[in-house]
From TrEMBL:
Entry keyword set: Glycosyltransferase, Transferase
Taxonomy, superkingdom: Eukaryota
Family: Belongs to the UDP-glycosyltransferase family.
A Gene Ontology molecular function term of the record: UDP-glycosyltransferase activity
Keyword Calcium: no
UniProt cross-references to SUPFAM superfamilies, sorted A to Z: UDP-Glycosyltransferase/glycogen phosphorylase
Gene3D superfamilies named in the record: Glycogen Phosphorylase B (3.40.50.2000)
Family annotation (InterPro entries): UDP-glycosyltransferase, UDP_glucos_trans
Coiled-coil ranges (or none): none
Protein's name according to its UniProt entry: UDP-glucuronosyltransferase 2B5
Length: 184
């Protein structure tokens, strides 16, 4: 991705150093980063390559080459927990994101709607702070035009009983169990 791991001022998480590091910490951090990367390449990358070849076939390019072709990277960190560090725009911190271990069943109509989504489904919500019903007519019309032009089913958190326009591929609800829908 091109994101820099500079051991002179970015402590390795597993070593427990805090900023600012002294000279000895920086040397230890540099050696630790080198050993960590070497161990990853030797023990883990080769195992991952074998598994990927079993699943996707032996003509799969090397995982290192595929990684270099990635256009975005989601990382399980957050600056509030691990300290700030420079990140490229295509590296997104999502630390703390999770899906609960218990997934509740969905209402029958919602399950049937999602089961009939052969081209996939889109979950659309503006959250609890912005009401979709207060959207200006031009923006609402633009969103509805896009929704009507795609083959996917759309589940929209909409605060009133009905949309201004009836569309077969759009289902609205005043409240939606987001985790359960996303886990379906």
């Amino acid at each position: 991705m091109g994101n820099e791991d500079n051991p002179s001022y970015i402590p390795i998480l597993f070593l427990g150093f805090i900023k600012p590091m002294n000279f000895l910490d920086r040397i230890t951090n540099t050696v630790g980063l080198f050993l960590y990367n070497a161990a990853y390449e030797y023990w883990f990358r080769s195992v991952h390559q074998v598994i990927a070849n079993e699943v996707f076939g032996s003509d799969l390019p090397k995982l290192q080459k595929l990684a270099k072709q990635s256009s975005a990277l989601l990382v399980n960190t957050h600056s509030s927990l691990f300290g700030s560090r420079p990140q490229l725009p295509n590296v997104v911190e999502i630390g703390g994101i999770h899906i609960p271990s218990k997934i509740n069943s969905l209402p029958k109509d919602l399950t049937e709607f999602l089961d009939s989504a052969h081209d996939g489904a889109l979950f659309f919500s503006l959250g609890s702070m912005i009401k979709s019903t207060t959207m200006p007519k031009e923006k609402l019309d633009a969103i509805l035009k896009v929704f009507s032009s795609i083959p996917r089913k759309v589940i929209w958190k909409w605060e009133t009983d009905e949309l201004p326009y009836k569309m077969d591929n759009v289902m609205t609800r005043k409240w939606l169990p987001q985790y359960d829908v996303m886990s379906k």
